[in-house]
Amino acid sequence: MTAKPVQAGDTIGPLVKPPVTKTQLVMYSGASGDFNPIHTVEEFAQEAGLGGVIAHGMLTMAFVGQLVTETIGIEGDLLKFGVRFTGMVRPGDLITCEGKVLETRIEGDRQFVRCEVWAANQKGDKVVAGQAEYII
């Protein structure tokens, strides 16, 4: 094994992202091709009943994906990664991504790891929750 072995119960992270900005949402719209105006136009998001612009769910998922890939490192292999969106992220929100190892086992000379992962805003409200499986 090239990476440090982990055990069930170990924590992952935290990865703290800078506050989400409206510029970031415009840039993500262009990068992702998701030009829904609820992500960039305040008036449209208000009229849609959202109380203002919200970040793309996939952007928040990408933050959690960054936590997972940084944890795995270049020698690891991601097997599964999925999330559920549990709350809205707004411009100005500070997102912290974390995780917890649920299961490990040795497979040959590598270690299989299954973990729960999540992202929470500055109030501690989870906005994304999911799981990842990887081999290191």
From TrEMBL:
Record domain MaoC-like: where: 16-106
Annotated InterPro entries: Fatty_acid_synthase, HotDog_dom_sf, MaoC-like_dom
Domain of life: Bacteria
Gene3D superfamilies the record matches: Hotdog Thioesterase
Pfam families from the UniProt entry: MaoC_dehydratas
Record PANTHER family: (3R)-HYDROXYACYL-ACP DEHYDRATASE SUBUNIT HADB, 3-HYDROXYACYL-THIOESTER DEHYDRATASE HTDX-RELATED
Protein name as it appears in the record: MaoC/PaaZ C-terminal domain-containing protein
Originating organism: Effusibacillus consociatus
